[in-house]
């Protein structure tokens, strides 16, 4: 892997990656303090690739971009449903009266999340965290601290254009093939242009950091790590000189090397968990196996989900066992 000498854009500005491909960067109020967004030129305008959080700060930066562009926005394309990617998709699409492109599962899941939980009982969330080994006070704190998806996501348009595996979009004479990744989100869209030698990778393949691969209370028996590892492999067939444009950190070259690193990373975690399960343990007790830093606040949510995804993978492959204790906690162990 290596990182080409490409100037990092300031908020409200862009850097031209290739003819008709612009790199933008917007701030995030998290530990990971930025997101990379992209504009791809079409004949009659610019296609927005991901949008940032639905905040006034991001809107103001987008307005600076719009005022400086030589053509209007012609479409909005969202790689996946997470708020830092879909946050302003509806706002931009409505402002320019243009179509929204997403995969089917990402679109309808985003629509469902913006609708909130309504009067749905929270016992499933409580059960998920309790079975993981969190104390009751911590469970209540985590559940009450969720401000809601719709607070940082503008209303999702009531129609969209569906993207599927192997679909090809032609923008300004260049073809962009849809490659679907799963695991970080259910049906994540990546775009590969053979002519330009560019992969718009979203969160599916990141440099330096690993995408969160989590199993959450919405699908507690899911096997998202299996989904992730299996959908990483097709990216190793891309040419070695492919320039990868990720949603976080720097553009890089070396997609095959990075995919192999990500696969090795997860298998190291899997092996460490099997070893740690020599005695029955809860998810919370197993967190230090995967995370050496102190975890607090919302990081606990992502850490628990990541740990459960690895444990579910091991369960599906018969590497460990799981049973429910008298206290209602899941205990993970190995066959003796």
Describe the structure.
The structure is a single chain. By secondary structure, the chain is an alpha/beta fold. It has a domain at 15-120 and 148-274: 4-Layer Sandwich (Metallo-beta-lactamase, Chain A), CATH 3.60.15. Helix content is 33%, strand content 22%. The chain is built from 10 helices and 15 strands. It has helices at residues 56-68, 83-86, 89-96, 104-114, 123-132, 136-144, 224-232, 255-276, 283-290, 299-316; strands at residues 15-18, 21-27, 34-42, 45-49, 73-77, 100-103, 161-163, 168-171, 174-181, 188-193, 198-202, 243-246, 252-253, 321-324, 330-333. The strands form 3 sheets. It has a 7-stranded mixed sheet with strand order 1-2-3-4-5-6-7. The chain has a 6-stranded mixed sheet with strand order 8-9-10-11-12-13. Strands 14-15 form a two-stranded antiparallel ribbon. Helix 5 (123-132) crosses helix 6 (136-144), helix 8 crosses helix 10 (299-316) and helix 9 crosses helix 10. The termini are far apart. The model has no long low-confidence stretch (mean pLDDT 95).
